[in-house]
Fold:
Amino acid sequence: MAIERIIIVGGGTAGWMAAAAMSRLKVGRKLDITLIESEQIGTVGVGEATIPPFVGFNDLLGINEAEMLASVQGTFKLGIQFENWGNIGDSYIHPFGAYGYAMGGIGFHHVWHKISQAGDNRPLQVFNLETMAAYFGKFARTQDYERDDLPPINYAYHLDAGKYAGFLRKLAETRGVVRQEGKVDDVQLDAETGFVTSVKLDDGQELNGDLFIDCSGFRGLLIEQALETGYEDWTQWLPCNRAVALPCKRDDGSPPPPFTRATAHRAGWQWQVPLQHRNGNGHVYCSEFMEDEEARDILVGNIAGKPQADPNFLRFTTGRRKKFWNKNVVALGLSAGFMEPLESTSIHLINTGIDKFLSLLSLDGITQAQQDTFNRLSGREYARIRDFLVLHYNATSRNDSGFWNYVRTMDVPDTLTEKIEIFKANGQIFREEDELFTDTSWAAVMMGQGITMGNHNPMAESLEGPKTRKEIDEMEQSIRFLVQHMPEHGEYVSRYCPAPT
Structure:
């Protein structure tokens, strides 16, 4: 059956990202796209930090970067600073961009390990532009420099997710997407196929559709409540199941740093996302080891200014739907699954879900092959990200609480164990099946949290002599030169994309 009517159930970041992207389908054809949302239903709105692929998503939609950032109180992000994860007092940055660049076909961290064993005392971090710029509070974009002998600058954004959804709503509506106010009261299924045929709103109105996008949040109104798809629970590996969010002013007048901060506490961790005129804050924790009141008190005691709202408590179960595309329903965002925002992957998974869906979509109808491929690729992506998040908890020396004793000693997925053991042996990291996180990402977290390379790839031994040494020195010098000539991050934002006060 041809697809002529697409219904998106739920707004928020996921719904309006889907609507904005799918609005491009309307060009040159008759296709109705309707998004149903209710002003009475709030959104979670804690996913305010992004990663570099999100920049490409906005480019694809033809969005002006400066205009968008100004409207969403946006700032730039070069990576994530982790504090107290390996041990209390430890700190490291997981940067965007690579450490150095491959030499002789060998990842740079192997070359660095070799020269370190030979007596070179420079830390690996000095060979990463984003790390050094973050440490000094600097920022610029690659296109700001006309020299091609300088390393590229990889970045993402911090943004107010609610304002971003509003920005995309305006874009989608100008491109023909229709917003329908209301709550879904009932879902009708075809008796033979089990496909969703329509949704009935609380005012009695019934909307028919051929394809439905479920962006209804944790409850999964279509994918779970109507189709009973099932949920794969990952609590045994990611035991945090609560969060409390609380925005605040930056009372000290300090400029926003160009990185997200993730600070580990007794039974979880705290995020700090710096926007132009406030910070987004939250405390993710495990209810088995901490009460809500204590979690709130820890958060309030560790923010940079006066709270601007009441604490917002959230409950979740880490995991994913057993199917992301079931019959004629595709789940995006929290409807599809949830992994805590430790590596800012929530908005990214919406992005990649939309990308995969639009790549597979045929408006001539829905096939089983489309569903199976989407589910296989999405499941693989979720599992790889899951392993990376589990690494942060398991690779720790902390023994100061029951929570850290549990995650330090828990059994982890075999795929993660293998990755760690290979790295310990010779520092090798395989980026399998086009997974999101690069060898730099894995190396940054493993070494940042105390997992060391036992050795390096023996091929690195072939890189001998003054030519190699000169190239490595020039690499560091280029990074130092660029960081020295970058403006302060706050200055850059105030000039490039100032938000209305």
